[in-house]
Amino acid sequence: MMRKILVAGNWKMHGSKTMVRTLLEGLLAGSSADGKADLAVFPSFPYLSLAESILSGSHITWGGQTLNPNAQGAHTGETSGGMLVDMGCRYVLVGHSERRSIYAESDEDVALRFKAALDAGLEPVLCVGETLEEREQDQTESVVARQLDAVINAVGIDIFSRAIIAYEPVWAIGTGLTATPQQAQSVHAFIRDKISALNVIIADQLRILYGGSVKGSNAAELFAQSDIDGGLVGGASLTVEDFLAIYGAVA
Ligand code: PEP
Q1: Is the CB of 120 under 6 A from ligand 1?
Q2: Is 75 a catalytic residue?
């Protein structure tokens, strides 16, 4: 099974209209529909409309950074999956470590959001990963398994045909530290094996992205690993040059 590499930029709470326009126009000019990788961006909610107007009909897709588990209602400040679909989103991030740690989203909350995303017709990008302390205590696999199980138990495995997983070791996010290609590959293989034990076909098709200080200088080696199907990129997705260096590293 050939899984096409996906390079996705998580812009977090960064940007302005000018910055979003500059980034998107630069990405459109420097990438192509028949390129070796798919390209996606995750702007903040206020810029989704701008992203839709610039990217509609192009090869670049976009998504939201989170969603509320409810479809609608009295949830001031929140955004539903249906609203993201209305903004042309294809994807939504679910369970990013910053949501888990700063906004106290539990495994169960993440599972509810994952389900809400699927119900709305979005492709959730489920983020999982261990902290430094957990890695040092040799708990990487048990933490990732627990985070995955919470979602699999809630929605079943078959629906993962419409999902993406991002392995993001918390200690590598925004720190400049990157998992070595071997460390990352080992966890990616663990994730694929775990899914494979439940459904071989879905495991084979599933894109598993690596996230954690991906840069132009380390992307090629990471993406060359057999179970790494692209990257979820934070800091280096905020300039056209750095983001396209990662896109261009896809062999
Ligand atoms: C992220 O937040 O998903 C991420 C991987 O950030 P960075 O690339 O900056 O480590």
Answers
A1: no
A2: no
DSSP character at residue 90: -
Q: How many residues does the chain have?
A: 251
Q: Give the H or E element holding residue 50.
A: helix 48-55
Residue 168 amino acid letter? E
Rounded to the nearest 10 degrees, how much is the dihedral formed by the CA atoms of 108, 110, 115, 121? 170
Atom 1 of ligand 1 has which residue's CA nearest to it? 234
> What residues contact residue 162 under an 8 Å CB cut-off, 6+ apart?
118, 123
Ligand 1 atom closest to Cα of residue 233: 8
Region of 91 on the Ramachandran plot (φ > 0 left; ψ -120 to 50 alpha; else beta)? beta
In this structure, what token pair is assigned to residue 228?
Answer: 């790494």
Tens-place pLDDT, residues 190-230: 999 999 999 999 999 999 999 999 999 999 999 999 999 99
Q: What is the pTM of this model?
A: 0.97
Give me 17's structure tokens: 């209209």
Cα–chain-centroid distance for residue 239?
18
Contacts (Cβ under 8 Å, ≥6 apart) of 136: none
What is the per-residue pLDDT across 109-139, written as a single tens digit (0 to 9) for each? 999 999 999 999 999 999 999 999 999 999 9
